[in-house]
């Protein structure tokens, strides 16, 4: 099958986007959220898949009838609209589960208003900027849904300027953080905390969602969501998606905190730190670049 060409980036209401995430815009904006929907919101590469699988297992376990259903069908990607695949919004509409788990990378100002009106619960996952940039770079290399990333130094400049799909990492994490201050049904969590102590983060998720899994269920979830198990698992490793070339870079790539050290030069790091301080000077948010 011939694959479509890479999309180009354009300015969409002040955010860099491509057609694969804006083509179905009116339908996405009129999405009818329900009070029990759970939206998993992230800037790309923050651990969306990890948290999606945790929530999916906590709510539904993995009975035989679901064991071969890929995660991208269990937890649809709301705004995606790519050739030859069902639109994320339609998959979300058709989800038979309650609650419905729905993934988005939209900046907070683009989230369909029904989620706020229905007071749906939202889990936002954030990851430090340096590892996010590295992970996003490799993802761009292997995923034809994204523009060509160019070489690492070119991609890093674009990342710092917000010239990547879904725009500025800095604005994304900050505006979602601001939203948390006024919208109480939002749980803001960090990839680094999940790496450090997934058990504790799962407990926090459970208390936010009002779930009380048994010790046995909890252990089962924790075992299934380790990096190695998710990398081997066809449900979670995106190996069935034709737009992704896993031989260029696997979707489940490293799964670590601090891989940025293998990519940033000393001078890139200095420039990044300086720019970071400036862009993040008005926030109480704290990120960990190593643990
Ligand atoms: S996407 O495409 O934006 O939805 O990607 P997303 O799922 O947000 O992020 C992918 C990165 O998360 C890592 N990952 C994990 N790390 C540790 N443990 C587990 N279980 C896990 N699952 C996914 C994945 O490897 C990507 O990070 P990198 O740094 O590229 O390895």
From TrEMBL:
GO terms for cellular component: cytoplasm. One of its GO terms (molecular function) is sulfotransferase activity. It is found in: Cytoplasm. InterPro entries: P-loop_NTPase, Sulfotransferase_dom. Pfam families: Sulfotransfer_1. This is Sulfotransferase. Residues 35-283 form the Sulfotransferase domain.
């Amino acid at each position: 099958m011939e694959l479509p060409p890479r999309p180009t980036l354009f300015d969409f209401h002040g955010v860099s986007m491509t057609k694969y995430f804006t083509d179905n815009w009116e339908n996405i904006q009129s999405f009818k959220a329900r009070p029990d929907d759970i939206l998993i919101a992230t800037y790309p590469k923050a651990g969306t898949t990890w948290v999606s699988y945790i929530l999916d297992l906590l709510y539904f376990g993995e009975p035989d009838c679901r064991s071969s259903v890929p995660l991208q069908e269990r937890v649809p990607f709301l705004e995606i609209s790519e050739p030859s695949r069902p639109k994320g919004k339609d998959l979300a509409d058709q989800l038979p589960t309650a609650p419905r788990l729905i993934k988005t990378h939209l900046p907070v100002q683009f989230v369909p208003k029904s989620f706020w009106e229905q007071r749906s619960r939202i889990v936002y996952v954030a990851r430090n900027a340096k590892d996010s940039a590295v992970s996003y770079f490799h993802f761009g290399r292997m995923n034809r849904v994204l523009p060509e990333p160019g070489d690492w130094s070119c991609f890093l400049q674009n990342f710092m300027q917000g010239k990547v799909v879904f725009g500025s990492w800095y604005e994304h994490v900050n505006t979602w953080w601001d939203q948390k201050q006024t919208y109480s049904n939002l749980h803001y969590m960090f990839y680094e905390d999940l790496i450090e102590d997934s058990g504790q983060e799962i407990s926090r998720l459970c208390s936010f969602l009002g779930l009380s899994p048994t010790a046995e269920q909890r252990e089962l979830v924790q075992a299934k969501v380790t990096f190695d198990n998710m990398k081997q698992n066809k449900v979670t490793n995106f190996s069935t998606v034709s737009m992704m070339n896993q031989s260029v870079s696997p979707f489940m790539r490293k799964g670590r905190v601090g891989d940025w050290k293998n990519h940033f030069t000393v001078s890139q790091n200095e420039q990044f730190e300086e720019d970071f301080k400036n862009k993040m000077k008005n926030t109480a948010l704290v990120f960990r670049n190593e643990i």
